[in-house]
Amino acid sequence: MVKVVEVSDSSQQKTLRGHEAPVLSVSFDPKDEFLASASCDGSFVVWNIEEQTQVVSWPLLQKTNDVSNAKSLCRLAFQPAAGKLLAVPVETKVHLYERGSWTLVSSLSDDLFTQPINVVAWSPCGQFLAAGSVGGLLAVWDVNSKLCVERQKHEKGFTVCSLAWHPSGSQLAYTDTEGCLGLLDGLSTSSTAAVPASKTKPAKDYDDLFDEDDGGHMDEGLSDTISPLKKPVAAEDDDDDDDFLIPSTGRVRNRGAILADENSMDTGSLKLGQDRFRDDDDDDDDAGSTVAPDAAPLAPLRPVYEGPLPTPPQKAFQPGSTPAHLTHRFMTWNSVGIVRGYNDEQDNAIDVEFHDTAVHHAMHLTNSLGHTVADLSQEAVLLACPSTQELASKLQCLHFSSWDTNKEWMVDLPKGEDVKALCLGQGWAAVATSTMVLRLFSIGGVQRELFSLPGPVVCVAGHGEQLLIVYHRATGFDGEQALGVQLLQFGRRKRQLISGEPLPLSHRSYLSWLGFTAEGTPCYVDSDGVVRMLNRSLGNTWTPVCNTRETCKSKSDHYWVVGVHENPQQLRCIPCKGSRYPPTLPRPAVAILPFKLPLCQTSTEKGQMEEQYWRSVLFHNHYNFLSSNGYEVSEDAKTESQKEQQELLMKMFALSCKLDREFRCVELADLMTQNVVTLAIRYASRSRRMVLAQRLSEIALEKANQIQEEEPEEQEEEPDYCSVRRTSGCSGGQSSIRHNQQEEEEEEVEVEEEDGGEKEMEEAVETKRRVNPFAKEADAPVMPSLTPLGKAGRANPFKVSGSGKPTSSSGQPRVTNILDSMTSSRKSAPLSGSAGRSNKNPVLKPLVPRSKTKTQSTLLQMTGTTAAQKKTPENPEPAADQQKPAAVPPSNSPAENTENKRPKTGFQLWLEENRKNITADNPDLDEADVIKDAMGRFRTLSAEERLSWTERAKGQSGDAAAEMKKRKRADGGGDNETAQADENNAKKKKPLDPSSKLSAFAFNKN
Amino acid sequence: MDPSEVEFLAEKEFVKIIPNFSLNMIHLIGGDLGPFNPGLPVDVPVWLALNLKQRQKCRIIPPDWMDVEKLEEMRELERRENAFTPVPSPYYMELTKLLLNHASDNIPKADEIRTLVKDIWDTRIAKLRLSADSFISQQEAHAQLDNLTLMEINTVREFLLDSLNCMYKLRSNLQPGSRKGQFTDH
Lengths: 1006, 186
Description:
Chain A is of the alpha+beta class. In chain A, α8 runs antiparallel to α9. Chain A starts with a strand and ends with a helix. Chain B has a single domain, classed as Methane Monooxygenase Hydroxylase, Chain G, domain 1. In chain B, α3 packs parallel to α5 and α5 packs parallel to α6 (about 150-175). Chain B has a three-stranded antiparallel β-sheet with strand order 4-1-5. Chain B has a two-stranded antiparallel ribbon with strand order 2-3. Chain B is about 50% helix and about 10% strand. The interface of A and B includes residues 337, 358, 586 and 592 of A. Chain A: Its main location: nucleus. Chain A: This is WD repeat and HMG-box DNA-binding protein 1. Chain A: InterPro entries: HMG-box_WDHD1, HMG_box_dom, HMG_box_dom_sf, WD40/YVTN_repeat-like_dom_sf, WD40_repeat_dom_sf, WD40_rpt, WD40_WDHD1_1st, WDHD1/CFT4_beta-prop_2nd.
């Protein structure tokens, strides 16, 4: 049923009955005689309004039961003015019916229409008919010639649901079902403008132009595509003129264009870039037409271009800001504070608030200049506004940390230059402008360097002396942005660290945050929520460290990043429910996300550890960067991180060992530091993987050699040992001093190597009471064994710090240096002692943490003992020997021999003094028993007495050690033969030897 | 037990604050607090939060349940059910009072929340009175009341016990020796 109502007074109401289903559309005939309607029942009917009768009815359409199910909206339309024709969209064609006779005059169609036509619309002049289809296709026909003069495809292929011509006929507006409004412009101008051509002046000019140029200036963007074919086309044009005898030249042009189009199709593919380039040229000639921006790079009458489309370049933004069109917005939110902008009716103001009120109190500024961008640092607030017609773009800086009374300065930018992005560093400010220039200012307002950027700026960020710039490198296609990045370093040594490399972004995303971590590593976030961080140790590559979208609960939730910290590893961001940006009210709370490298199989134990390891490596890169830039670096944190990494490596090693992946083990060992490798060797030998142990020992040796080679060279080359670097390379004496200092500093830190060593020494002192008999034995000339080597190996609990040093004084471990001998012997004693009774010792720390820092000692002790134990079958006693007096031939057990070399302990001294008493008391005792007895007696002494003895022993030890050393060297020849413990140990111990001396120094001092 | 004592206990509850100062971790008998980073939320006991708030050293983030929608839902549930419904926090009343009195500027819709919590409280207390009444009138030996908070128990305890004792005395005077032990102290 269709009802017709007189709008003015609703007096005349006509009802047209006949449709059996919902009516899809109606259209008045311009003379108000008829009314056409289309309905879901599949018919379209022309009514006589006056008589309220059906004039004609065609069952042409598809039947549906409801409007929502109808495939096509079937918006029919009468030709305006005369109303001679009625256009009805039927499937993929448009039927034209003649008024009055209601006969099918013709039907317009186009090959491109594969889906039903939704709407038709007549141009105001009635000569052109536009149609929009379900697939998003738009076409314009010339009704007289029945030729399609223009085709256009909707960018996203949404269904076109309405069309409307501009009254002048030069533009066509359309809407789609996704709620977008589009305008077809320029492309249709020439064809439509041609319609009223005969009447309007500009059109005539046009015609003249055309005549002169012989068809050279056809539709913009089109002529170029056929440029190689210009001549023939022109010729055809002329022919057409004759053939068709159409009065208006404009129409001829269209006709020509069609032919041209055919030609161009023949010639093959069209280059988009060319088109655009030529478009510009044509614009010069054809000022009346405008070329749609990159969104519609198509020439009329040409098949729709289906290739990659250029992406609109993203606009410049400030990191941590919400869009400028909001009335209440964050102008910036960073680790220092928040700048909020209010821009509503009653107020235009800026609020500056600091997270830490100790920096500065909150500020409230009136924003009379209309600042749109802001940045905030510990020193200043930087604001900038775009230029207006009268005023130039201004840069305002509130330098609140200034010590004079002028806390503010302002700079006008040159005319025509707008601030696009800005940032603050330490003592400087950088401003990127619309003229692709980057201007540097000092924080006090002095203009400094300026330089040109390779492209329109997207974002800048500053930290300390580093400046990070992201700009448009080129035009991106298919939703991708083509961004480039520059990283500059100011300060004393000004240089460019990254020079215009492409910035990797996720697929079809744009940059959403740019900045530095609190520690100064460049970092950015793209609109897909992927956080990437610069990996300076891998040639300045960008590593994805987190995907914030993974933690989002729903698809429309986002995290708005406000800061990144490497230590502790925190990604500070604001969760936004259902949006990309947080509102200013209620005040959002910061949440912390952990980082997670997107490694494979992080659900497995292996994957987890690998992820942890590499994350740890990545997030501790900044130590090297900072120290290489002369910043103070906390050694504690650094060693801590190294410890963590080595620990993870060891765990992975153990895991792969368990899985029988020996090759993988070796690979892992390659990543370890030398002292951890030794631990790995121990692990391997314990789990009876001798092949593995063998290979590992090769690695260990290699590493040791490497260190030795690198040491004498410049120190900066080896970041791992940079803690040592500063003091290393000097004589043993100096480094020992450093050790002492370190010891004092680090006493509290349990895991520190020195500390561990010290404790060991204390333990050792105790243990010596028991084992010291060997000290006496030392006098005996026997002692073959691997001792010197083994000892040296054992002796380096200070390995981590010391490993690099020794080589400076000695390439060969065995030096005649007296310090050397002292330390090695001194050191080995306590350690071997503790090894002997390690299980009893309550002070002994858990193995793993210690292993990181002073693995060498523990490890080697253990290997020593294991070696000894292996021999047990041949030698019934050795295990016992370790603690028992050595009536046993010393050659049996290497472990034992090592003990012999130990310097004298308190008990030894005491024994020497009291030996006679004992022998006098019990003349029939043999050596072993004497010692046993002596030990018993010594124990009965008071604690003070014992302490005094040990003190004395310490004093003497130096000399004793020196003596022993000499003796050892004399025995050196025998070492190799008798060394029964596997060679590996010996090998790897060798290079380590010298380091022990340092520790000994430390000990002596105490 | 004094209501102020209950409140004292409530002050041990944890609440999130955003400090505007930086301080390393502080070690207290009750546990370690911090570290405090300006702008980063951190959990602290209510007593510390209020103290810092009064010195304008922090912003308090209201607990999750202190939200108009959730409280409205709770109120409806409380009114619908005959029994006591579980409360979001064992100290909801005290926390509401403390936070709203001292940090109402950090809590959106503070007045509405105050009203809602008061409504919930009133409903619950009314239920409590009602059940006490029926308990006494039916002369039951025992009753089970779930989901009561300390503050609620505390409000009725004194009166209920006193009146029960009193009634016991009266009854035992009326019928000496007969119904001993009917009412027990709570």
